[in-house]
Design a protein that fits this description.
With 171 residues, the chain is an alpha+beta fold. 35% of the residues lie in helices and 11% in strands. The protein is built from 6 helices and 4 strands; from the N terminus they run H-H-E-H-E-E-H-H-H-E. It has helices spanning 2-27, 41-47, 56-60, 85-88, 103-108, 128-139, and strands at 52-55, 71-74, 77-80, 144-150. The chain has a 4-stranded mixed β-sheet with strand order 1-4-3-2. Strand 2 and strand 3 form a beta hairpin. 21% of the residues are buried.
């Protein structure tokens, strides 16, 4: 009985070795070309760390300069997007999202005026778009959630942001 178990385990090990070798040779990784958050070692390491709790001022410092990672927030959840400085680095296409919670702009598409966490005045059905963006960042192969940004309460006398007319990129 023991001999059969050893033979089975040896065969299983050889099969796994062949599959790993094939995946590495064919796809350049050990997951047959599949990539998501579970194949990102940084995602797993982040799970071992406590959440960062940042103020808006602290979040603004995480712009990829001075050895800091590139962070952005969506409706209070903070994500590390340092893996793609060609998209989020200083002066790059999505750098306007870096160091802030631009939840409203993710919904409205007004990147020049709506880079704020203030979602007042947005129709409830449109708020589902926030969930879609969070899902994007949570399941992306290169990005991962690192914590929360704490926003001060919006005073009652601050007007609701006006609706935007067109999606405009910031200057």
């Amino acid at each position: 009985m023991l001999g059969r178990m050893v033979a089975f385990l040896a065969t299983l090990g050889a099969l796994i070795g062949v599959l790993i070798g094939y995946s590495h040779q064919r796809y350049g990784n050990l997951t047959f070309g599949h990539q998501n958050q579970y194949t990102n070692p940084k995602w797993w390491l982040q799970k071992l760390k406590p959440d960062l709790i940042l103020s808006e001022a602290e979040l603004a410092k995480y712009d990829g300069t001075n050895g800091k990672p590139i962070l952005l927030a969506v409706d209070g959840d903070v994500y590390d997007v340092s893996a793609t400085p060609e998209l989020y680095g200083t002066g790059k296409p999505y750098s306007f999202f870096v160091g802030k919670d631009g939840a409203r702009a993710y919904v409205t598409g007004c990147f020049a005026t709506d880079l704020t966490h203030d979602l007042r005045g947005i129709e409830p059905e449109r708020l589902l778009e926030i969930d879609a963006w969070k899902l994007f960042y949570n399941t992306h192969a290169k990005y991962y959630r690192v914590g929360k940004v704490v926003h001060p309460p919006i005073p009652d006398d601050v007007p609701v942001p006006p609706p935007c007319d067109a999606a405009k990129m910031p200057n």
